[in-house]
Each structure stands twice: as structure tokens, then as C-alpha cells.
Amino acid sequence: MTVQHQTFVKGASINIPPLFTGENYAFQKVRKQIFMKSIDSEIWKTVTNGPLVPTVLINNSQESKPREQWNIDDIRRSQQDVRARNIISYALTVDEFYRISTCKTAQEMWKMLRVTREGTDDVRRAKRV
């Protein structure tokens, strides 16, 4: 009798982000990072650096570019935050979704989930000592 191993387990799709239940946070965090990077590395940059706000140089100062002046690249790059928010929120349980539902950016969502599971930077530093 041969034993067949399941190739795919629940939540292990290359097309659907892994479900985040709040358990095994370190494992889930890495899976979610890899998933976002596999879709587009710019999505992960948006999560870590915040959303792109197209700018224009006016009087030697960087100012937000009016939306009607955005070019195709500005539009594409600004969409990365929406894509990241979709990936993050799509794969959450209802309780986890409500925790991040008021966040305006993917970076805020990611930070909220991280702080909830790992604590603030100060708490994490104190745990290491």
C-alpha cells in the first residue's frame, strides 16, 4: 500500500493568499510576504515603505502631483497600495479583518497586525533582553 502525500493543503494556493487566523504569526507573516513578492515585488515595497504619492518639483520643493497630471507609470505604481490592501484583507478571518478595517494603507494594516501579535518595537526589544 502506498501513501500519497497531499501536494496542496488548505491555504496553499499560488493564486489565493494564505488565510491568516492570528495563530502561528511568524509562519503566517513570512508566507504573506512571499505571496505578495511573488505577485509583484513593488507590492511588498508599498507595505514596507508606504503608498507611492506621485510628486512634482515646484520651486525646488517636492509637491504632490495633481491626479490629472499622473502618467501611466504614476497610476500603476499608486495602485500597488490597493493591491496590497486587497491581498492583506482578503485572507483574514472576520475578527482579524475588523482589527485592520479602519486602516487607510497597506503599511498601516501590516503594522496593526504585527503590533497585535508581536507588540511594539519597544516591547520586542525588551523581550530580547
Automatic annotation (TrEMBL):
Pfam families: Retrotran_gag_2 (PF14223)
Name under which the protein is recorded: Uncharacterized protein
Gene: Vigan.07G100100
